[in-house]
Amino acid sequence: MSIYDIQIKTINGQEKSMADYKGKVLIIVNTASKCGLTPQFKQLQELYDQYHEKGLEILGFPCNQFMNQEPEGEEAIQEFCSLNYGVTFPMFAKVDVNGDNAHPLFKYLTSHAKGVLGTKTVKWNFTKFIVDQNGEVTERFSPKTPPKELESSIIALLGK
Questions:
Q1: Residues 3, 28, 32, 35: which is the catalytic one?
Q2: pLDDT per residue over 103-132, tens digit each?
Q3: 35 is catalytic
């Protein structure tokens, strides 16, 4: 199975295939609106603005598994991200990233890029995964890693 075989749902409820992102460098991140790390939306949007035309896509997946920090519905999440951080990169329907009900995308990501001490578990909001143009998960970054620190990895992949 490839990452491109996975189906996802947009924040507006439309089915989409990860295959739509073939040939792009991806940052896939689980997000939350009421988290101390929520201001990372600003740097994610800056990266998107700077590198989208060169082949970068950022895919945001709201998740409410960490201390109920994403309690709202999809419409409220989209409005919050747009109004407070000017988010224009694609946001998707709320998902679980851990446990039996974890979305297949996050099961795939965590099995291909393990965290500290080899764990598959996503530890917190704003865990960031980088996927190259061929669908290979190349890196995983901790929630506390500022998105700007992903820039050198993105540039290297876009330069391929």
A1: 35
A2: 999 999 998 876 655 667 888 999 999 999
A3: yes
CATH tag, 3-158: 3.40.30.10
CA distance 76 to 87: 13
Virtual torsion, Cα 63, 88, 146, 154, nearest 10 deg: 110
pLDDT-flagged residues of the chain (< 70) = 114-119, 160
Measure the CA–CA gap between 9 and 6, rounded to whole angstroms: 10
**In this predicted structure, what is the pLDDT of residue 114?**
67
> Residue 76 has what pLDDT?
87
Q: Which of 30, 93, 104, 41 is nearest to 66 (CA)?
A: 30
**Per-residue confidence (pLDDT) for residue 30, from 0 to 100:** 96
The region that residue 23 occupies, defined by phi over 0 for left and psi between -120 and 50 for alpha, beta otherwise, is: left
Helix (H, G, I), strand (E, B) or coil at 27: strand
**Overall residue count recorded for the chain in this entry:** 160
